[in-house]
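for ur thesis appendix - DUF2559 family protein. copy paste whatever u need, i formatted it the way the template wanted (i think)
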Amino acid sequence: MWSITMLTTEMKRQAFLKLRTENYRASLRLEGLEPRPVKTNKSTAKPVELKAKHVR
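the 3d part is after this line
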């Protein structure tokens, strides 16, 4: 059950980071600035690591 909770939290974090980036880029365009291209081949998120003391 613990790993499912961690996965859900990580998925929420990823969605928030993506939305924040999209909103920032949109605000730059509204101000008349051209945002830099986004590299799609590199993930900005850290992988989820489970601690051994919590795994049964």
